[in-house]
Specification:
The structure is a single chain. The chain has helices spanning about 20-25, 45-60, 80-90, 120-135, 160-175, 180-190, 195-200, 235-245, 260-280, and strands spanning about 10-15, 35, 60-65, 95-100, 105, 110-115, 140-145, 175-180, 205-215, 215-220, 220-225, 250-255. It has about 290 residues and is an alpha/beta fold. The protein has a single domain, classed as Divalent-metal-dependent TIM barrel enzymes (TIM Barrel). Strands 1-2-3-4-7-8-9-12 form an eight-stranded parallel β-barrel. The protein has a two-stranded antiparallel ribbon with strand order 5-6.
Length: about 290
């Protein structure tokens, strides 16, 4: 069925989760601009759930955010999974497919998103894997900056900082960035850096979309990226700064559990729309290359 047209920059979406299916089906057509799903959770799903997904995908644009490619891993890419994902993306005319800049497999799936060492060697490794994914799928993908709670020790002469690493991967893989604003905030607190300075170092032209989500305050210096709570004020402020610095892009509200009534989630979707409406007019015109 081919690729869909890109989403409008000023658009606000919501994660398509099984726990929200009934509420999403009953929602007004204009309540959100798009939905996002993990393709692995829907490939091959039939019956009542499959029918509900198909109905929603007919009504709304659907973007995809993958969980299982393990772009930073050492195991061979799963060609069977990649082919199935490609057919899913084409069938549903998905305008944006993204994956995590992490790894999650080692002789089997680890069910966690683990950090990649910030080195030139890792840049070359993960970039080659991203290029191959793009070749197989016949489309550009976006990779997401992930939250992480420990760094992998490397020799000082080999070390890059996180922003250098992300930017180098984007350049050498020639792919896009899904900029997760909550992950910037969480990592900045946990690892002691300035979130706005990190945000400003990201390459504007490669940003395809943004994510916002809630997190858990374990301690003043420890935040846990849960996607199970409302978005915090500091994250909303960082999203507004992202629009100012990099421009408006399609923005998704992630919520994976502890679902409140849909009306509460839609108020957060409306908060995204409000920030997009307040962003400088020039921000909407920043080119996405």
């Amino acid at each position: 069925m081919g690729h869909a047209s890109p989403l409008p920059p000023a658009s606000a979406g919501l994660g398509l989760r099984r726990g929200l299916l009934s509420a999403l089906q009953a929602a007004d057509q204009e309540a959100f601009d798009f939905l996002e799903c993990a393709p692995e959770n829907w490939i091959g799903v039939g019956g009542r759930l499959g029918a509900a997904f198909e109905a929603l995908a007919e009504r709304h644009p659907v973007t995809c955010h993958g969980l299982s490619l393990s772009l930073g891993g050492s195991e061979a890419l799963d060609d069977t999974l990649l082919a199935r994902i490609g057919r899913f993306l084409d069938r549903h005319r998905v305008p944006l497919y993204s994956e995590h800049l992490s790894w999650c497999s080692d002789d089997g799936h680890l069910y966690d998103l683990l950090p990649i060492p910030f080195t030139e060697e890792a840049v070359e490794h993960v970039s080659a894997r991203i290029r191959r994914v793009q070749d197989v799928l016949g489309r550009r993908i976006a990779v997401e900056n992930v939250s992480y709670y420990a760094t992998i020790p490397v020799a000082p002469t080999q070390a890059l900082d996180e922003a250098q690493f992300v930017s180098a991967v984007l350049e050498r893989a020639d792919c896009d960035l899904l900029l997760d604003v909550n992950n910037i905030h969480v990592n900045a607190i946990n690892h002691g850096y300035d979130p706005v300075a990190f945000l400003r170092r990201m390459p504007s032209a490669r940003i395809a979309s943004y994510h916002v989500a809630g997190h858990y305050d374990e301690a003043p210096d420890l935040k846990v990226d849960t996607h199970g709570a409302a978005v915090k004020p500091d994250v909303w402020q960082l999203l507004a700064e992202a629009y100012r610095v990099h421009g408006i892009r399609p923005t998704l509200l992630e919520r994976d559990f502890n679902f409140p009534p849909l009306a509460e989630l839609l108020r957060e979707v409306d908060a995204i729309r409000a920030l997009q409406g307040k962003a400088p007019a020039r921000a909407a015109e920043v080119a996405h290359g």
